[in-house]
Amino acid sequence: MKPDLKLILSVSSPLLLLIVWQAVTAFKLFPPEVLVSPTAVVAAFGEVIATGELQRHLSESLTRLAGGFTTGASLGLLFGLALALSKTVEQVFGPTFQALRQIPVLAFIPMLILLLGIDEVFKIVIIAKAAFFPVALAAYDSVKGVPKSYFEVSSLYRAPWWVLISKILIPATIPNILAGVRLSLTRSWLVLVAAELIVADSGLGQMMEMGRQMFRLDIVMVGVIVAGVIGFGLDRLFQLLQAHALRWKTA
Amino acid sequence: GEKPASKPAAKLPETVTIAAISYTYQGKPTFNGLSQVVINQGWLEGELKKKGVALNWLPVPTSVGGPLINEGFAAKRIDFAGYGDFPALIAKSGGVDIRAITSSGQGNNAYLIVRKGLEAKSIEDLKGKSLAIHRGRPWELTLAKLLDSKGLKLTDFKIYNLNPQAAYSALAAGKVDAVFTLSEAILQEDKGAGTIIWSTKSNPEWKMRTGLFARTEFTTQNPELTQTVVNAYIKAAHWASQPENRAAFLELASRGNNPTSVLERDYANEGGDWKDHFSPIIDQGFVSHFDDVSKYTFENKLVQKEVASRDFIDPTFVNKGIDELGLTGFWKETPVTGPVQ
Amino acid sequence: MTLKTLNLNAFKPVWLLGLIPPVLFLLWWDHEAAKGGANALAFVSLAQVGQALIDMFSSGELALSYGSSLGRALSGLLIGGGIGTLVGIAMGLSKPVEWAASPIYNSFRQVPILGWLPLIGLWFGSGDLSKLIIVALSAFYPTVLYTFEGLKQVEARLLDVGRVYRLNGWQTFWRIQWPAALPSIFTGLFQALAFTWISTIGVELLFSSGAGLGAMMQQAQLQARLDIVLVCILFVGLTGFAINFLIKRLSQHVLSWRSVRA
Amino acid sequence: MDYVPHSQIPGHKVKQTGAVSLKGIKKQFNFKDRELKVLSEFSLDVQPGEFVSIVGPSGCGKSTLLRLIAGLDDTYDGTITLDGQRVAGTSLERGLVFQDHRLFPWMTLEDNIALALTNRQISKDAKAKLVADHIALVGLKGFEKAFPHQLSGGMAQRAAIARSLVNEPKVLLLDEPFGALDALTRVHLQGELQRIWLAQGSTMIMITHDVEEALYLGDRVVVMQANPGRITHTVDVNLPHPRDRASPVLHRLKDEILAELTNVPEAPNSVVRLIKGDDQ
Amino acid sequence: MDYVPHSQIPGHKVKQTGAVSLKGIKKQFNFKDRELKVLSEFSLDVQPGEFVSIVGPSGCGKSTLLRLIAGLDDTYDGTITLDGQRVAGTSLERGLVFQDHRLFPWMTLEDNIALALTNRQISKDAKAKLVADHIALVGLKGFEKAFPHQLSGGMAQRAAIARSLVNEPKVLLLDEPFGALDALTRVHLQGELQRIWLAQGSTMIMITHDVEEALYLGDRVVVMQANPGRITHTVDVNLPHPRDRASPVLHRLKDEILAELTNVPEAPNSVVRLIKGDDQ
Ligand SMILES: Nc1ncnc2c1ncn2[C@@H]1O[C@H](COP(=O)(O)OP(=O)(O)OP(=O)(O)O)[C@@H](O)[C@H]1O
Ligand SMILES: Nc1ncnc2c1ncn2[C@@H]1O[C@H](COP(=O)(O)OP(=O)(O)OP(=O)(O)O)[C@@H](O)[C@H]1O
Ligand SMILES: O=[N+]([O-])[O-]
Ligand SMILES: [Mg+2]
Ligand SMILES: [Mg+2]
């Protein structure tokens, strides 16, 4: 019974959105120049696939995302844990961390260009920075909230730090950390696209920006949808991970 | 051109919205070029007020000005905009019905600046080297013309698509060999980041052109209001054209990205008179420039439809305004009269 | 402050440790700046930054831009965070809402803000309202996520107690689910804080120009005024730090019931 | 032994309601890939105002049983009724002291107890008075504002008892309520529980591992065995309340129950070999 | 009564190490605005290989004491030494069974127990064998893969006992280890604990509320009183192990201890008035 309703609801809500969208454009409630119709988007989709443009942009973006996001998120996890677990690390790096995580990486671009040039490394570093902070914060904040009693058991058996982290802290905080990872993915996408606007010839962001500059809102929408679908897919992956990590709750 | 015969609106709109590229100066937007003069003169606001119409200025930042204005036109949120040739043409080609109703003078210079220590005297010397340009921005056309004239192609260089901010950093850091950009290049040169080796001063006909554009629906429904707006811009141009106002105008302009010294140099050595910078007149040069832009963008698949100048340029308001204001012959250009070819 | 009120113990110098990284950074910075050449363009000297700070401060420009960015960030945080919490609650409490909303939420969340600009510009213009919407949106995503997660993680054994005492839906929520989810909700708030700052700066570049640190930074970059850029960065960072500190205090107060490591 | 109606026990007021009846209860858990039969054909009739003690080995299904009666779990076969009405969901008429205390960590002791009164239509002052009285009852005066993590194990357990008593349920289910208490506190609270039971005439079903306690308080002691959980023995205790702990009848019954409890086919063997230890 | 050295008790191997000494321990908690004195001038010397039982009222500071010895809390005055060395932090030499089981909810029973062996330099197989043996020891065979929420209260407690035994600490601290167990399981595990203690010669300090248990297992029973927590009485049990539970000596000592425990100036009064109840 229930899973059926789940399926129905989770399929029908996006579908409904699509129908509303199609209806709004069909009745020309908005000028077609700005709110393009789903059919126009499908056509544009066909166009950018046929020219191979989408594939090229997408593979560029995904490569950058993979490099930057994985580096940033894993370093963020380690740093967040260190910050939460070591008083010294917290005292020395805590304030800098809290200030730095609020500053858009985009503000550092001139300096980064000077240090890293304008090639791939630069883009990956920018994405890594964006991915780093949400995960670091999530790890830091949720480890800070782990009940003292868990630390006590671990200390009683003198679990070495890697056991403490892998067997106790991560399982205890996995929902919050994964939420951080999911946010960091969001932010990586955001910054990736922004970075591609500033310094790139290719990538989904560049495709969307050119689309906008050229007033091809159908192509912008293709970008929106592709980014949304890919992000959604990656996000689902994290949700599955989370369900797997939390199976002790329902098993 | 033939326009649908629609009746003038019985009722005047509540507001007239003009969008223009702007900068933030002391926390408030300062508009680029003549728009700020129009504001300062206050004439337009007063005229509109008499008719019970409010005047609304929409400041847009230079980096996203084109798309923002185009989207605003499409959404009928703006009625007039002072901006560049390229984005306006893109909007028109994309189905947004707008047209150019005045020119804003001779246009903007583009510059080619090479990094410090690079022994390059001309664009040919840069073959195989890295060149930064922000793709899709109006001055790309200027570059295309320059390359064309030398038998070069974009593929002869290692092109980096960088926005101006990033490009200047990269230039200073020596990460690119050259940047093709607007007058900020002078500033970069002053800072020691590089040397300017070419500019449109040698080829004024390749300058990027700007003008006042209007939503066609608005102009047909409110020809009188349109005329008032155009007249305001003509008056502003007239004011700016006075040699005694030169310093005042430069001071206004320096509130943007460039200090007066840079502006002075940007305006220097162009031959002709000071007032030539401000001529609102739509002449054949203006029309052929748009023909070129149209051709280039279409050939390079930047737009899907080629735009015919006759649909896109409407000199009637500016011609009438110059007449009304008694400024016939003040500027040297020969106005296009009758239908644009 | 009189000697009496000055509690010397409260001034244990451990917090000075926190100054090590910024000071080291500044030393390195000044060293780079002193190298001259290309470096001088990206690494302006600290003296120059100080001068810019004084100039911007005395002209009132800084206060104006800063005030407008701060106002935008805070109202975005308030609006986006508030609505986000409500949506997170709805998704966390009702399975059907979760099923219907989460595919949309999770895919919209992944769309780079840029993609929405044309639509938001169309619907809401390119003025302050649109800016506020984007900023609020950026605060909305993290708060939804963490509120939802927090509510989903509430232990069944505690909910059982509520059932035994026949708490109604509201009572169960207010007495059990909400407090149990609060730690997670605060994490969301901390995340949202950073997101609002980042989008505040970003959106000031993307919509109509006007007062704001983002616009100021953008223009300063074009003018190659790195000193101004740095002053802006400084204010963004310090303000974020300060707001973070306040929320931290609040959370420590509200979550004082937790028995966590000191 | 004949059953002595409660009304005949001096001092015991009996309500006409509070009859709990379990018929043919079957309950199983899906445990990994196999099914774990926890209760099988479990039937029990509890009279209004009766005090039933349940003893049985660890893991035989006692807590599971109380959860079913409390209405926390309705995935079972068979029927459970209260006064002839099928039990559906929880009800304020059926109180429960959980085996673990389950205090809310974010509420003070006071607030935790007041929670049970959330839906009681009495004045704020009356509530505060009830809460304060029950805190005093379990000997926690002075700890009203303490959070659970600031309480000792026994203190938390007492707080949980106070919470369940404060709203005077018709049927009170107690899962090892005194397990973590020292002898003195335990005796005291047994006395209090009995006093309250006598005065209110409520029905009580209490799980305990202390056979003496089961006999001291219960009208009846039910002995369970495991795999699957079932009743193997029932002992009626026909003595008036309060009882003399030293009564020879109680001693005899205790031996009887202990014999029943220790009468298990196989007890786990000593299988741990000690591999370390320098003196081996 | 004179103290009989352990070496004279048949079957008891005593290590030369494992002496725990507490001197002048003072411990207080900041509780709201006031200070709560929990332990005051607490001193106790435990011989290597001795089994000390501690009994005392709820909240008197027993668990706090074990936490200090385990090294989980070092904010106290006084000194605690193990074999003359000041105790600092936790150590694998000092094991502890918490009053609440503290199993990690995300680990299976097996993994929870294996956690204690993290730092043992033995082969994987040997670890697995040890874990399996200890699971069998506490009668939880078949539940190796169960998560804590799938265990009954007593089963979880047994798992916690297994976890503390598996790495054979020199000193084992037990906080009411058998509190949630039925009589049979309890007797069985008491026997196992004693067997392990005899074989390993480790030192044991056990908190219990069951005076019989304290006497059955302990070389010495320490009686505490509250406010502040202190030792008011010490009983040496000079009987060889394993003992006869029915021994008259034990019975006498039990009465002595119960008398001491119940000798409290003021017990909480019955203050709860019953405001509801239709039959009042
Ligand atoms: N973290 C804490 N903060 C404040 N007070 C505490 C804290 N932990 C314990 N206490 C107080 O210390 C006293 C002793 O607690 P402890 O847990 O040692 O008692 P206990 O003797 O083990 O009792 P029980 O037999 O009930 O487990 C209690 O009054 C308790 O309220
Ligand atoms: N959620 C669950 N999933 C799977 N098995 C469960 C679950 N809850 C309980 N069990 C199993 O049911 C059996 C009975 O558990 P229950 O808690 O009722 O025992 P109990 O009689 O209360 O024991 P104790 O005296 O130790 O508390 C146990 O074998 C336990 O493992
Ligand atoms: O740092 N970020 O701009 O995400
Ligand atoms: Mg149980
Ligand atoms: Mg205790």
Largest sheet of chain D: 6 strands, mixed
Classify the secondary structure makeup of chain A into a structural class.
Answer: mainly alpha
User: What general outline of chain D do the C-alpha atoms trace?
Assistant: globular
Distance between the termini of chain A: 20 Å
Share in β-strands of chain A:
under 5%
Are there runs of chain D of 5+ residues with pLDDT below 50, and where?
Answer: 1-8, 266-280
- Structural class computed from helices and strand pairing of chain D: alpha/beta
Overall pLDDT of chain D, averaged? 88
Quaternary organization: heteropentamer
CATH superfamily of chain A: MetI-like
Could you please say which CATH topology of chain A applies here?
Answer: MetI-like fold
List the helices and strands and how they pair.
The complex is a heteropentamer, with one copy of chain A (251 residues), one copy of chain B (341 residues), one copy of chain C (262 residues) and two copies of chain D (280 residues).
Chain A: H1 2-26, H2 38-50, H3 53-85, H4 87-100, H5 109-116, H6 120-144, H7 148-156, H8 161-198, H9 204-213, H10 217-245, H11 247-250
Helix pairs in contact in A: 2-10, 3-4, 3-6, 3-8, 3-9, 6-8, 8-9, 8-10, 9-10
Chain C: H1 20-34, H2 38-42, H3 46-58, H4 61-93, H5 95-108, H6 113-124, H7 128-152, H8 156-164, H9 169-206, H10 213-222, H11 226-254
Helix pairs in contact in C: 3-11, 4-5, 4-7, 4-9, 4-10, 6-7, 7-9, 8-9, 9-10, 9-11, 10-11
Chain D: E1 20-31, E2 34-46, E3 51-55, H1 62-70, E4 77-82, E5 85-86, E6 94-97, H2 109-115, H3 124-137, H4 153-165, E7 171-175, H5 183-200, E8 203-207, H6 211-217, E9 220-225, E10 230-236, H7 248-262
Parallel strand pairs in D: 3-8, 3-9, 6-7, 7-8
Antiparallel strand pairs in D: 1-2, 1-4, 4-5, 9-10
Bound molecules: adenosine-5'-triphosphate (ATP) (2 copies), nitrate ion and magnesium ion (2 copies).
Give a brief description.
The complex is a heteropentamer, with one copy of chain A (251 residues), one copy of chain B (341 residues), one copy of chain C (262 residues) and two copies of chain D (280 residues). Chain A has 251 residues and is mainly α.
Please characterize this protein's 3D structure.
The complex is a heteropentamer, with one copy of chain A (251 residues), one copy of chain B (341 residues), one copy of chain C (262 residues) and two copies of chain D (280 residues). By secondary structure, chain A is an all-alpha fold. Chain A has helices at residues 2-26, 38-50, 53-85, 87-100, 109-116, 120-144, 148-156, 161-198, 204-213, 217-245, 247-250. Chain A has one domain (39-246): MetI-like (MetI-like fold, Orthogonal Bundle). Chain A is built from eleven helices and no strands. In chain B, strand 7, helix 5 and strand 8 (158-161) form a beta-alpha-beta unit. Chain B is globular and about 60 Å long. Chain B is 39% helix and 18% strand. In chain B, the strands form two sheets. In chain B, strands 1, 2, 3, 4, 5 and 11 form a six-stranded mixed beta sheet that branches. Chain B has helices at 34-41, 43-50, 65-74, 85-93, 139-149, 164-172, 184-190, 216-221, 223-241, 246-253, 260-267, 284-299, 309-312, 316-324, and strands spanning 15-25, 28-31, 54-61, 80-84, 98-103, 111-115, 130-133, 158-161, 178-181, 194-199, 210-215. Chain C has a single domain (43-254), classed as MetI-like fold, CATH 1.10.3720. Chain C is 77% helix and 0% strand. Chain C is built from eleven helices and no strands. In chain C, helix 4 (61-93) packs across helix 10 and helix 10 (213-222) packs antiparallel against helix 11 (226-254). Chain D is of the alpha/beta class. Chain D has a domain at 108-168. Chain D is built from seven helices and ten strands. A six-stranded mixed beta sheet of chain D has the order 6-7-8-3-9-10, sandwiched between helices. Chain D has a four-stranded antiparallel beta sheet with strand order 2-1-4-5, with helices on one face. The N and C termini of chain D lie far apart (55 Å). Mean pLDDT of chain D is 88; it is low at 1-8 and 266-280. Classes of the chains: A mainly alpha (251), B alpha/beta (341), C mainly alpha (262), D alpha/beta (280). Residues 104-106, 129-130, 187, 191 of chain A line the site of nitrate ion. Chains D, E: Keywords: ATP-binding, Nucleotide-binding, Transport. Chains D, E: This is Sulfonate ABC transporter ATP-binding protein. Chains D, E: It holds the Pfam family ABC_tran. Chains D, E: GO terms for molecular function: ATP binding; ATP hydrolysis activity. Chains D, E: Belongs to the ABC transporter superfamily.
